[in-house]
Amino acid sequence: MAVAAMGLSAKELTAALEGLFAEGEAAACARERSAFDLSAGSSAKPLVLFGAGQLGRMTLAGLRKVGIEPVAFADNNPRLWNTRVEGVETLSPAEAAARYGAQGNFVITIWGGAGTDRMAQREATLRSLGCQNVIPFQSLFWKHAELLLPHYGVDLPHKVHQQRDEVEEVSHLWSDDASRAEYLAQLQWRLFGDFSALPDPVAHATYFPLDLCPLGDQEVFVDCGAYDGDTIRSFVDQSRNSFKHIYGFEPDPGNFAKLRESISLLPRRDAISLRCAAVGASAGTVTFSANGDQASHIGGGELVVDCVSLDEALSDSEPTYIKMDIEGAELDALNGARGIIERHSPVLAICSYHLQNHLWKVPLLIRSMSDQYSFYLRPHFLEGWDLVTYAIPKRRLRQP
């Protein structure tokens, strides 16, 4: 964390990458297979999942497919204590520790964008209660990768080794020491599951690094994954309500209803266009998992929604600023905006945390479309959440 806070020169990053890759792909594969068993010891030990939320329930479902049944959930929410979640007894951390702390394996299944603590604090909580064996979830996921991975940026470490050439190519694209330090930290986390490597979030509003790129009064802002209008409201606030036009795309019908209601309350509603559609590489329809929340995503659901490409949907416009937070569909959506990017080089704020390789795939794809950009990498929530690649045209950079 200290290195990330101070920043990293290009030369230091190159040397650090050599160290990260020294393990080699074969050794990384071996580590993936053995890490959980080395930490957990005997498979006969009781297994407790610390965290009965979305990640904990997903872990439970995967384990049951291979015949593994945890003895309990432990959870910080008192409303869940002495209830059953998905059929599993749910206890307070203190009660779970009293019953199983001496002989059980406690796997931490708490990790989410709304988190206010860190993995080290979760581990310390359990150890302070007397839990002898505490294991963050990654090594368990590596062991049962066919059932549990990928999960956002968590995937098998050897895949990073397989893409080493691209990883190293992108290391030369970052435009400042802070981005290089963040890139190294993200790679360390992807390779070794080291949450302590991840630095604190930056202070500026998500998607709007005004210290790098001021907003103009003629911005044409495009919000892909507009959710309930949170980013549009932020843009209106950051721009002081001075812009040319806003386009919002949101495919989840529940979210879109909230988006439309939210936007109806803004003062310049006539300058905002909304469309209930996904954004992808081409026009058509896609299956969609509509959760009515920020995790709604293309694929995996029964709902069929319209999909558009930005090149087609905005053919009569000239976007100046594009944001994408679309749950892993960013590469497809960028390909669908290739014409806009090649012709106009708008500012791009692209989420890069939904899949392991988006850390390097996103900047590489943008760079293949235009050589007009400077690249920056910024985290906006704890532990890797809301990591954004900013591609800013050199003409738009704030002058010193």
UniProtKB/TrEMBL annotation:
SUPFAM superfamilies: S-adenosyl-L-methionine-dependent methyltransferases (SSF53335). It comes from the Bacteria. InterPro entries: FkbM_mtfrase (IPR006342), SAM-dependent_MTase (IPR052514), SAM-dependent_MTases_sf (IPR029063). Pfam families: Methyltransf_21 (PF05050). Residues 223-356 form the Methyltransferase FkbM domain. NCBIfam families: fkbM_fam. PANTHER family: METHYLTRANSFERASE, FKBM FAMILY PROTEIN, SLL1173 PROTEIN. This is Methyltransferase FkbM domain-containing protein.
